[in-house]
Every structure is written in C-alpha cells, then in structure tokens.
Design a protein that fits this description.
The chain is built from 10 helices and 13 strands. It has helices spanning 30-45, 63-75, 90-93, 96-106, 110-127, 129-132, 181-187, 190-195, 217-226, 231-240; strands spanning 2-3, 7-9, 14-19, 50-53, 84-86, 144-150, 154-159, 200-204, 245-248, 254-259, 262-267, 276-282, 288-294. Strand 4, helix 2 and strand 5 form a beta-alpha-beta unit.
Length: 296
C-alpha cells in the first residue's frame, strides 16, 4: 500500500469538491464535455483546493474515456497529486455486454475472470499513477493514502477499491461491490494508524454504504444489485482509522447520511446533473460543513 509523503499548502479553510459517475461515452458527447469544462473552470475560480472523483469516469470501461478525463484535468491545471484524487468505478472496470458475451461463448473459470479483472484494475491505477503516488514509479494498487498538509489542517484521504468482477450468479449486473479483506487489513495496520495521527481522515470508495434500505421488495431487489457486500467490515475499518466522512458515488443520488457517527456523502451523478456537486469545507478546528452546490 502506498502512503504518500506530505505536501504543505498554505491556505485557511480547506475546500474539497466531490463529483462522481461521469459516465463519459467518447468525444462525440460534446455537450457533456463542455459541461465538464465549465465545472472545472468553476472549481478554479471558486478556490477549490482538492477535487475527488469517486468512480465511473467511463460508461463502458473504455480507456479513451480515461484519456478524456485526464486531458481535461490537465488543461485546467488539476492533474496533480495534491489537487485531485480519482477512483475506479464498476463502469471503469467492467464492460457488462462484453462480459456476458464472453461468458456465454467460452464459459471461463472464475479464476481466469478474476485475473482479467485484476489486469483491468492495474491498467486503471497505472494510467492515473501520478494522482495516486505523485510520480510514475509508485506502487500501482489500492488502498492508498494521501496526506496533504495545509496550513490550517492536515487532511488524509484513504482510498479503497470497491469494484469486483462480474459473475452471472453473484454479480449479474456488475454493480455489486466488495472491498477485499487484504485492503481492509492494510488500511488497519499500525503503520497507517501512525501516519494518520493528527489528520482529518476521509474515506473514499465508489460503492454506497446505503442505497434504499426499505421494506419494499422492489427496493430490496435493487439494493441487492447495487450493495456493498462487506459494508459492515468496511464501516468497522472506517471507525478504526477514525474517519470523519466517507465520500462515494455509484447510486446516482446527491445525499448525505450518518452511520455510527460517520457522515457519508453521495456525490450523485455528473452525467445526469452536470451543474451540481458536493462541497466540503474543513476548518482548522476539525469542524466541517458540507452542502450540495448548483451552478446557475
């Protein structure tokens, strides 16, 4: 696991913007690209210190869409370790149509499917390596920890991959989540706990802790297809590292909710609401304010 060194930035309150679920479908989607430019312009003009994109940059696991996002971040001066953090979503790593066609044609063994998935995840982390480790030679894996030392506070971003492979019985829509036990153990290690001392800790993943959670059978069926399978284990680790908030996406709602004293912020979907995002302001006392912003 990569624990990056400190970078000190002089500022008062720390302003973090959070967006999710871009679902780009190539450069022909000119209106969405223009909306993305507008939003990034706004972040710079508004003095945002860090941008979190919590997954689903692409709609169909296309590397070209990752290129598009990286090019836009670069053109706006945001493609920097201290300026932006990017996570993988299920649509970045799983092409559902391709998976189902491949399965029906060749019926590959689960082990082969897992190896193919791990190659795709490695491809994603290598592609965005500068945002994970700050260079091109860091360890290409999840989880990773970023610690940014602002003048008013020290912010730690602890990032986990919650995407796991498509399987016809257990993950038929490719949208269920799982954070591997290895990631959870790594984030709970004494080395990490020591590095997080004195930090305002943020947890990051793609999948939602809570979707609907109602008694409706239809909602429960939808919950099953979208759920984070080991969410209680994940919550226990977030409590162990004393995370104050968790930022996620996946379920296309702009919402905040609290579980056992930890605030969860769902970044909604840029694809369907490109004028809206979540703003988080952290002050020097360790207090924070969160609200959803709508551009006029």
């Amino acid at each position: 696991m990569k624990t990056a060194s400190l970078i000190k930035l002089i500022t008062a309150n720390v302003k973090i913007a959070h967006i999710s679920d871009l679902h780009f479908s190539g450069k022909k989607d000119r209106r969405q690209i223009a909306d993305f430019d507008r939003l990034l312009d706004h972040f710079n003009a508004d003095g945002v210190h860090h941008l979190v994109i919590s997954g689903d940059l692409s709609n169909s696991a296309e590397r070209a869409d990752w290129h598009l996002v990286r090019e836009k971040l670069e053109s706006h001066g945001l493609y920097k370790w201290e300026k932006c953090t990017v996570l993988a979503g299920n649509h970045d790593l799983i092409n559902l149509e391709e998976e189902m066609r491949f399965y029906n044609a060749l019926n590959p063994l689960p082990l082969l499917r897992m190896r193919g998935f791990e190659r795709k995840l490695s491809e994603f982390t290598l592609f965005f390596q500068e945002l994970i480790s700050g260079d091109e030679k860091g360890k290409k894996t999840f989880p990773f920890v970023k610690i940014i030392n602002f003048s008013s506070s020290k912010i730690a971003l602890t990032a986990l991959n919650s995407v796991y492979p498509w399987y016809p019985a257990d993950n038929p829509l490719g949208s269920r989540g799982l954070i591997t036990s290895g990631q959870l153990r790594a984030l709970s290690s004494q080395h990490v706990l020591t590095s997080l001392k004195g930090c305002f800790v943020l947890g990051l993943c793609h999948h939602a802790y809570r979707v609907y959670g109602t008694d409706s059978l239809i909602d429960q069926a939808f919950d099953w297809t979208m759920e984070l399978k080991d969410r209680e284990e994940f919550l226990a680790v977030m409590k162990h590292i004393q995370a104050r908030l968790v930022l996620h996406g996946h379920f296309h709602r702009f919402q905040n909710y609290t579980v056992d004293g930890i605030s969860f912020i769902n970044g909604g979907s840029f694809r369907y609401a490109p004028q809206r995002y979540s703003e988080l302001i952290i002050d020097e006392t360790g207090g924070f304010q969160q609200k959803f912003i709508i551009l006029s």
